[in-house]
Amino acid sequence: MKKIPTIFPEVWIIEPDVFKDERGFFLESYSIKKYKDVGFSWNFIQDNHSKSRKNTIRGLHFQIFPGQVKLVRCTKGQIWDIVVDIRENSPNFKKWFGIELTEENFKQILIPVGFAHGFSVLSDFAEIEYKVSSYYDPKLESGIRWNDPDIGVNWKIKNPILSNRDKIMPFLEDFLKEYKNPFG
């Protein structure tokens, strides 16, 4: 397993060891021992799975305090995965990072608390599986607008398909006016 840094010191790309032969492939998509061996200490307690069609954008989502750490991978198709630093006191505040996650590259991205997450679907369909460090709580669910001009994410698609909820999420500046210290 490789642990690859990103522009954010807290966000990591994980490349699992993949064993391929004429029959197909095998990989350990998660091993608590291997993750602890490379310095990760989170315990994941829930797995989520979603399927979306081409040009869908989901995001930018997160949970406020205590938050959720996420380990995201694409099991079918291809997505453009986005992480945004939304911690006001961070030197990387409002910066974003994107990576293609595909069923062929097997890459995963580890996203800690204090970062918003979203993705756009580049293939006809995509399935995403992700582990989280705390249970979903609708009272803690939040997000920011996918097209916030202060952040300027390039989603790599035109004419996105959005949920009604994602269409009306607040801009980051408005969210932070309402929630002082949302991550504890």
From TrEMBL:
Pathway: Carbohydrate biosynthesis; dTDP-L-rhamnose biosynthesis. InterPro entries: RmlC-like (IPR000888), RmlC-like_jellyroll (IPR014710), RmlC_Cupin_sf (IPR011051). Its EC number is 5.1.3.13. The record marks Y136 as: Participates in a stacking interaction with the thymidine ring of dTDP-4-oxo-6-deoxyglucose. CDD domains: cupin_RmlC. Keywords: Isomerase. GO terms for molecular function: dTDP-4-dehydrorhamnose 3,5-epimerase activity. The active site is at H61, Y130. GO terms for biological process: dTDP-rhamnose biosynthetic process; polysaccharide biosynthetic process. Pfam families: dTDP_sugar_isom. Catalyzes the epimerization of the C3' and C5'positions of dTDP-6-deoxy-D-xylo-4-hexulose, forming dTDP-6-deoxy-L-lyxo-4-hexulose. Homodimer. Belongs to the dTDP-4-dehydrorhamnose 3,5-epimerase family. This is dTDP-4-dehydrorhamnose 3,5-epimerase. It comes from Promethearchaeum syntrophicum. The gene is rfbC.
